[in-house]
Amino acid sequence: MKKDVDAKQLLKILVGVAWLDGIIQPEERNYLRRMAANTGIADDPEIQSLLSELKPVKPAECYQWLEDYVGKNPSQKDYYGLLEAISALIYSDGDIPTQEAKLLTKVQLLDPSSESPKSTGDKVLKTIQKLYRKAISEHA
Questions:
Q1: Predicted local confidence at residue 1, as pLDDT
Q2: Per-residue 3-state assignment (H helix, E strand, C coil) for 35-57
Q3: Would you list the DSSP string of 62-125?
Q4: pLDDT tens digits for 92-132?
Q5: Shortest CA distance to 95 belongs to which of 12, 6, 20?
Q6: Are 113 and 76 in contact (CB under 8 A)?
Q7: 8-state DSSP, 25
Q8: Nearest to residue 96, comparing CAs of 30, 7, 37, 27?
Q9: pLDDT tens digits, one per residue of 38-57
Q10: Which helix (H) or strand (E) holds 61?
Q11: Distance CA 95, CA 91 (A)
C-alpha cells in the first residue's frame, strides 16, 4: 500500500512539474502515461483526472505536493528517486522552460548525502516553502 501511495504522490508532483510552463508537451504526456502504467496506478481516478489535462495544475499546488512528499520522505533514497523522476520528465521533451529549470536547480541543491536526515528534511522543506510562497505571490 505505501508503495502505491508513494508512486501516486510522485506522479502527482510530476504532473504539476509538467504544468509549470503552462502546457504539457507531448513527450511529457507520454512519459507521465508510461510512468502511471508502469507503476500500476493508471486506473486510479485521481491520476486519470490529472492525466486528462482538463484542469491545469497551478504551481502552488505542485509545490505543496512536493513539500508533502519530501516532508514525509526525507531519506537520501527518496530524494534521489524524486530528483531522477523530475529530471527525466523535464528532459523528456528536449526543452527546458525557465520554471522547470529553476525547480530542478532547487531540488538538486537539496542533496542530503552529506547531512543528517533531520537537517536535510528541514533544509528541503524550507526551500520548498520558499518556492511555494513565491508561486503564490506570482499568481495572486
A1: 44
A2: HHHHHCCCCCHHHHHHHHCCCCC
A3: HHHHHHHHHHH--SHHHHHHHHHHHHHHHHTTS---HHHHHHHHHHHTT-GGGS-HHHHHHHHH
A4: 877 776 777 777 777 776 666 645 555 555 666 666 666 65
A5: 20
A6: yes
A7: -
A8: 27
A9: 999 999 999 999 999 999 99
A10: helix 59-72
A11: 7
The grid coordinates listed for 88 are 527525466
pTM of whole model > 0.70? yes
Answer yes or no: are the C-beta atoms of 127 and 106 closer than 8 Å: yes
Q: 3-class SS at 140?
A: coil
Instruction: Tell me the CA end-to-end span of the chain in Å, nearest whole number.
Output: 37
> Is residue 47 exposed (0-12), middle (13-18) or buried (19+ Cβ within 10 Å)?
buried
